[in-house]
Amino acid sequence: MQRKRSGQLTRREFLGLPPTPLRALEDARRVALDEGLRYVYLMNVPGHEGNNTFCEGCGKPVVERVGFKVLADHLSAGRCPSCGISIPGHWA
Known about the structure:
Layout: H1 11-15, H2 22-34, E1 53-54, E2 61-66, E3 69-73
Antiparallel strand pairs: 1-2, 2-3
């Protein structure tokens, strides 16, 4: 079992729960997007397109991630650099 740095088990590991199947995560993301949520991304699924946040205006990635790490934040003053649409959030 993989342990946190402190040597403690995560809650999921402690309860003996298996990882959520990728298909279930993809289905949940699809439902959320279909229901009108605009910025839904999958967390901690390295290499998956759903790891990123996409602009609702032009569809280009505005925040790119691998797992929990942000690789690139393309926003400029909270706006998509490609189409200029404002992306809600608290951006550094």
